[in-house]
Amino acid sequence: MTLIAIILGGIILALILFLRYYPAFGGKWSGDKIVNEVDFGSNTTPGTNLSLLKDLIKGNPNGKPRQPISVVPAELGFLHDSHTKVFWFGHSALLIEIAGKTLLLDPMFGKAPTPFPWFGNKRYSKQLPIDIDQLPPIDAVLLSHDHYDHLDYGSIQKLKHKVGSFYMPRGVGKHLARWGVDQDKIHEFNWWEETELVGLKLVCTPAIHFSGRYLLDNNTALWCSWVIASSEHKLFFSGDSGYGPHFKKIGDTYGPFHLTMMECGQYDERWPAIHMMPEETIQAQLDVKGNMMIPIHWGAFKLAFHDWTEPIERVIQAAKEQGVAIATPRIGEAVIINASEYPSAAWWK
Q1: Span 36-65, mean pLDDT?
Q2: What is the share, in percent, of the chain residues with pLDDT greater than 70?
Q3: Phi, psi for residue 319 in degrees, rounded to 5
Q4: What gap in Å lies between CA 264 and CA 201, rounded to an integer?
């Protein structure tokens, strides 16, 4: 019995030390729990665990592409022309050239959205449109929350020396501080707080979601969406969010938007308060008064049980029914605001 107790004690101690010192988990938990503006109760509907387990065991042969998808090399560097451009890097990672500034949004460049990148569902494409080392200096990185598919330890390690500032919701900064980002580069915000970045207004706006990188830190950091506004163009980035009244409030306060980047994938009716259904994405686009929309949060990783092309197919159908304009760029292809044409090819077929 003594030997068993020693072994169990050693296992528990090793687990505690692992959770404390493995860097990808991020900063140490502290502070109170955070809740959404609207109380949706549990993130999942009652009695879902068994059905989720069944679907996990069953699998979905169409859950990811049968062969790696191709990407378009990102043609960056035209920062001083008059155009505002958005490059989608798959999932929710985006690069924006606006008002002479270069912004990165949720720059997850890793191979898999887990703390252990050698495991998990790998990226659908073998490569990215551009390597981190080839990126120009980045004026600011905007983060929506601390989940692994949006905040990646390896990516931040490679990026931190070429980024001027990091903007994020309250509580996320503890991860970056642990990873060696200079404290004076870390800027945290609550919902509805505004800041200026030399010619740009940035607003940390609400979302309906949750946060956490390991078992002990659930909902101890805030999650958000972002408004990005120059003197000529206004953009909206949804981050991860369930559908709710915050979209209309954002639209009434800061809209209309020339371009939005709205999540439309990794959903399930069993977790309605975490991600929108594609039809809800279109309603959210109407709520925020968006002109053109880039569907995001799809095309890179398998995080739900639906077919990998279902999000884009459903959101396009809903957009047609509601008269909403959508751009469907290939990963790495530029979307230029107010262009005469927008990317519209069904490249995933």
Answers
A1: 76
A2: 89
A3: -65, -40
A4: 26
Span 106-129, pLDDT tens digits: 999 999 999 988 877 899 999 999
- What are the tens digits of pLDDT across the range 152-188? 999 999 999 999 999 999 999 999 999 999 999 999 9
d(CA 9, CA 99): 57
106: left (phi over 0), alpha (psi -120 to 50) or beta: left
Residue pair 197/140 in contact by the 8 Å Cβ criterion: yes
Cβ distance 305 to 270 under 8 Å? no
Secondary structure of the chain in the HEC alphabet? CHHHHHHHHHHHHHHHHHHHHCHHHCCCCCCCCCCCCCCCCCCCCCCCHHHHHHHHHHCCCCCCCCCCCCCCCCCCCCCCCCCCEEEECCCCCEEEEECCEEEEECCCCCCCCCCCCCCCCCCCCCCCCCCHHHCCCEEEEECCCCCCCCCCHHHHHHHHHHEEEEEEECCCHHHHHHCCCCHHHEEEECCCEEEECCCCEEEEECCCCCCCCCCCCCCCCCCCEEEEECCCCEEEECCCCCCCCHHHHHHHHHCCEEEEEEECCCCCCCCCCCCCCHHHHHHHHHHCCEEEEEEECCCCCCCCCCCCCHHHHHHHHHHHHHCCEECCCCCCCEEECCCCCCCCCCCCC
The reported pLDDT for the residue numbered 36 is 80
Give residue for tokens 């972002």. 226
Q: Are 287 and 281 in contact (CB under 8 A)?
A: no
